Amino acid sequence: MTYPVHRSALAACALALVISSPLAHAGKYDADRPGSADHPLVSRYAGSTLYLHGEENYAGARTLVAGKNGPVEKTVEGKISNRIYFGPKGRGSLEIFRNYQAALRSAGFDTLYECEAAQCEKDRTQSKIVRWAQGAQWVDNGNSDAYVIRLFEYKPGFHYIHARKDAPAGPVDVQIALRTGEESDANVQGRAQQFMQVIESARVEQGNVTVDASAIGSALKKDGRIALYGILFDTNKAVIKPESKDTLEQMAKSLKNDPGVNVFIVGHTDNQGAVDANLALSRKRARAVVDALSGQYGIAAARMQPHGVANLAPAANNADDDGRARNRRVEMVVR
Fold first, then answer.
1. What is the DSSP pairing of strand 72-86 with strand 49-65?
2. Strand order of the sheet with strand 263-268?
3. Strand 193-200 relative to strand 72-86: parallel, antiparallel, unpaired?
C-alpha cells in the first residue's frame, strides 16, 4: 500500500489515506452525511464512510500520553475536529490501524501513546475514549448518534494512537481509536468503526470579557486586589493594544467612583524568557497602563504607582498555554 501526502498548503501536516469513491449501496451507514467532509489534514481509510462530524473553534480535548506506570491523561487545547467513520467490509480494525500508524509516521508525527487490543484493555483505554467521544461536539443528525458512539464500548479489536507534529502555526495532535464491527447489527457488521480527533493549535481571542467598574471596586474593597486580563500587549512589547479600551475605561471609572483609593498597577508575565528581561517588560507595561489612565482618562498619576514582578507571582502553573495565559495579567492592588 502507498500513503501519498496531500500537496496542499497544509502539506506540512497532511496525512494521506487515499479516499475511494462513495460505496455503491445507500444503506444507513453507507454514504457520507450531507455537509460532512474529511479533515484537510487527515483523510479517511480508503472505502470508509463518514457518519458523524463536529467542530469546536476552541476547546480542550482529553488525550493519552505514555507515562512510567501506564498512559496519563492530558488535556490539549485548540481547534477540535471530530469524525466517526465506518470502514469497508472485509477490512479489519488492525489492518486499518496499521495504515493510520504508517501514514502518521510517514507525515512526521511522533507517537505519544499507542496500544493494541490486549494492552488497551490492560490500560483501560477503551472506556476513556467512549467517554471522550460522548462528550465531543457533534452535528445533530436527528437519529441514533449516541448509539453509534456507544458501539466503541467493551468490544473487541480496539486500538488507539495519539500522535503529534510540530507545525509553523503550532503543534497538531491526532488521536484515532478503532474497534471491530458490531456483530449484532447487520448494518455495521464487519465494518471497523473509527473515531478520529484532530486538535490544531489556536490562540484564544482575548479581550472579549470586560470586568465592569462595580466589580473592580468590590474586589478592591473585599480582597485588596484584582487581576485584569483585558489589557493586551503584543509579545515582548509594552504598547497597549486598542482592544484594551473597554477595560481601561472600567478601571478609570472604578477609581473615579472611589477617589480615596490609591493603587499599585502591577504587571505580570509568564515564565517565557529571562527573568531580568521579564522584569523590565512587566514594569514598562505597568507604566504604560498608568500613563493611559492618567493621560487619557484623567486619573491623577499620584494615585497610581507602576510596578512589575515578571513571573515571580504566578496565578497558575506555567507548564502549559492555559496556565501561561492566566499569568499574563495586570493587577490593581490597594496601596
1. antiparallel
2. 225-228, 329-334, 263-268, 304-308
3. antiparallel
Express each pLDDT in 179-238 by its tens digit: 886 656 666 667 888 999 999 987 655 555 567 898 999 999 999 999 998 899 988 999
Please answer whether residues 158 and 121 qualify as being in contact, where contact means their C-beta atoms are separated by less than 8 angstroms. Answer: yes
Q: What's the grid cell of residue 101? A: 500508524
Bridge pairing between strands 110-115 and 159-165: antiparallel
Query: Quick one: pLDDT band at residue 165, thresholds 50, 70, 90?
Result: very high
Grid coordinates belonging to 132: 471522550
Closest CA to 193 of 179, 206, 213: 179
**Global pTM value:** 0.60
Report d(CA 133, CA 53) in Å as an integer.
11
**Inter-residue contact 55 to 61 (CB < 8 Å):** no
For helices 245-257 and 213-223, give the axis angle rounded to 10 degrees. 60
Rounded CA separation 115/160 (Å): 5
Instruction: Please report, to the nearest 10 degrees, the dihedral formed by the alpha carbons of residues 226, 232, 237, 238 taken in order.
Output: -50
Report the alpha-carbon distance of residue 188 to residue 86 in Å, rounded.
7
For residue 6, report the phi and psi dihedrals to the nearest 5 degrees: -60, 135
d(CA 144, CA 146): 5
Of the ranges 30-39, 159-168, 181-190, the best mean pLDDT one: 159-168
